[in-house]
Amino acid sequence: MKMDTGGRGRLRPRKGTVQTVNAGKGNTEEVSATPAAASSSTCPYRCIECNQEAKELYRDYNHGVLKITICKSCQKPVDKYIEYDPVIILINAVLCKAQAYRHILFNTKINMHGKLCIFCLLCEAYLRWWQLQDSSQNTDPDDFIRYAKEWDFYRMFAIASLEQAAFFIGIFTFLWIERSITTQKKPNSVLLLKALLLSSYGKLLLIPAVIWEHEYTLLCLRFIKVFVLTSNFQAIRVTLNSTRKLALCAILCGLLVESTVVYFFRRMEWDLGSDCAIYKAQDF
């Protein structure tokens, strides 16, 4: 696709095509207001390159000519991903690119945080429950007690929820203390929580771990854990525009609180099916 440099002699692409225009040089005649410009006062967008606020992502000219806005700070397109396919965006997010995270968190309206969180917890609870049933070695399909063990699944779901809540509490506690000491602006808790929930999508990999059964369960669990933590690390960096050191310390603090909760469950003998119990069973 040829990129337009502005002026009256520009080529008009097909309807819906997005082009880039240099700041101050685009044709400003017959400009129609876009949804981006209309909502910029309440929810400003961000440049995916330099994280600076932007009033709009693009401008819609007559005859379907769309122009990507150029960032005044870095002189690059504010959000190049608005003309990318969702699959490309997903691949860049899996690769933990900061630009893709900024596009998803700041420049799109995604309201699936709660549903994604519940679905991930259900996957994790089912894997733990499945490990618990597998370790019981009860092979009688007519045993009605197996159906009574449905409550074990609910227990696994509650434990997984508490562990994730402890992880988030550890992160928010560290950030609150750090911001209080450095007298910096307090982070947007709602936005950060949404970012952490979205970046935990790696737990969906638990589904193929269940499908391909127990042969590679231990390796899969460790890989999934590392991937989710890496995604959480990048989400904190992008949301707070912080350094790697601060994001790493927040993740470590969250892991510390989560480990404390897991230890408490083990002491209370409530941890059957937890990650620690699964690792222990696999070692034998």
Protein architecture, described:
By secondary structure, the protein is mainly alpha-helical. Helix content is 55%, strand content 6%. It has 11 helices and 6 strands. It has helices at residues 35-38, 86-94, 98-106, 113-136, 145-148, 150-181, 189-198, 206-211, 217-240, 244-267, 275-283, and strands spanning 18-20, 31-32, 45-46, 53-54, 58-61, 66-68. The strands form 2 sheets. A 4-stranded mixed beta sheet has the order 1-6-5-2, with no helix packed on it. Strands 3-4 form a two-stranded antiparallel ribbon. α2 packs across α3 (98-106) and α6 packs antiparallel against α10. The longest helix has 32 residues, at 150-181. Mean pLDDT is 75; it is low at 1-41 and 276-284.
